[in-house]
Design a protein that fits this description.
The protein is globular, with a radius of gyration of 17 Å. The longest helix has 22 residues. The strands form two sheets. A seven-stranded mixed β-sheet has the order 1-2-3-7-6-5-4, with helices on both faces. Strand 5 and strand 6 form a beta hairpin. It starts with a strand and ends in a 6-residue tail after the last strand. It folds into two domains: 184 residues, BirA Bifunctional Protein, domain 2 (2-Layer Sandwich); 46 residues, SH3 type barrels, CATH 2.30.30. It is built from six helices and twelve strands. Helix 2 packs across helix 5 and helix 2 crosses helix 6. By secondary structure, the protein is an alpha+beta fold. 30% of the residues lie in helices and 34% in strands. Bound molecules: biotin. Biotin binds next to helix 1, strand 3, strand 6 and strand 7.
């Protein structure tokens, strides 16, 4: 079932409420506008009315708790595949939850646990022609990338179908299959020089693949290998030689 709202604070809140009340898997909350849309690390998600897809889906994947980080990666693949199917645009994936066109972000994934369910929040910048100054340098939309508008009504069912595919891939083929597809779709998974923002500061190095739990491996310049469990990844300039 799809619950539609004209305006809501955040689709995450309503989906969490429904999840805690025991709604079936696949229940989706969609809003034309969010007044308090949020992203990872408590950041605001720009949710201009009618210009983007703002949706939270309640999932009840039949997987072990240890697989949950991989659910986020599977959702990124779902978003990428839905965008490709509807618009023909090829997106990159940046671990763990960013969907990019070139170096700019066109969509993000936020996965949270509520009432034993995964609430998968997905924001896709679809028809924005411009963004507020503070994110203009890092955000793009499918419209800006393709030079034409796209139908939210086509994108939503495609996204829900691809989310279903992603969950089934994880349930049936397992974690390794999702990690393989993510690594193949992501220019950030291996050999990319990045800076990772962590709670205690920043680390820089070359990405070195994903471990079997779905965490990002970073090879630092001193040769040390760091497992990134959570953090914001951004491209770094290569060191001068
Ligand atoms: C991120 O990239 O930090 C994640 C962004 C997730 C945004 C979506 S929009 C629909 C749902 N409702 C929210 O408040 N956030 C998610």
């Amino acid at each position: 079932m799809i619950h539609r709202f004209d305006t809501i604070d955040s689709t995450m809140h309503e989906a969490a409420r429904l999840a805690e009340a025991g709604c079936p898997a696949g229940t989706a909350v969609v809003a034309a506008e969010q007044t308090a849309g949020r992203g990872r690390f408590g950041r605001r998600w720009h949710s201009e009315k009618g210009q983007g897809l703002y949706v939270s889906v309640v999932l009840r994947p039949d997987v072990a708790p240890a697989d949950l980080p991989v659910v986020t990666l599977a959702l990124g693949l779902s978003v990428r595949n839905a965008i490709a199917g509807v618009t023909g645009l090829a997106c990159d994936l940046r671990w763990p939850n960013d969907v990019l066109i070139g170096e700019k972000k066109c969509a993000g994934v936020l996965a949270e646990l509520h009432g034993g369910a995964v609430v998968a929040g997905i924001g896709i910048n679809v028809n924005q022609r411009e963004f507020p100054a503070e994110i203009a340098g890092i955000a793009t939309s499918l419209r800006l990338a393709a030079g034409r508008e796209h139908s939210l009504d086509h994108l939503l069912p495609a996204l829900l179908a691809r989310i279903d595919d992603g969950v089934r891939l994880l349930e049936n083929a397992g974690r390794a299959a999702v990690l393989e597809q993510f690594a193949a779709a992501s220019s950030y998974a291996r050999g990319k020089r990045v800076i990772v923002g962590l709670a205690g500061g920043e680390v820089e190095g070359l990405t070195d693949g994903l471990d079997s739990s779905g965490f990002l491996l970073l090879r630092r310049d001193n040769g040390e290998r760091t497992v990134i469990l959570a953090g914001g990844v951004r491209p770094a300039r290569p060191p001068c030689s």
